[in-house]
Amino acid sequence: MSNLDLTAYKNAQCTVITVAGELDLASCPALEDATCLALADDAPLRLDMSGVTFMDSSGRNLLLILRRRLMDGGSRLELTGVREALMRVLALTGADAVLPASRTEARRQALHPSA
Length: 115
What we know:
Elements: E1 4-10, E2 15-23, H1 28-34, H2 36-41, E3 45-55, H3 57-72, E4 77-80, H4 84-93, H5 105-111
């Protein structure tokens, strides 16, 4: 059973999916299914991750897969509201280099103090 709540809508600029709960092996298929709209029309996809409380490597891998699929279609993936713990997962695995996530300079310095 998935512990993930998704809300999707389309505006003039992109498709927005609000993600809340745990993004893990059990819940990734629900998010992947929800992204079909954005992938079908090559619209940019914005994932509001502010409600994500946990993300494992399956979640990170899905984000990388979505990014590649959107890029192959000439579009892009944007992450917003990424919590500190999730930013750390992305930073520790190097995924933050290719996954554009909204974050402040203070967060960037906390994750990469030598940068």
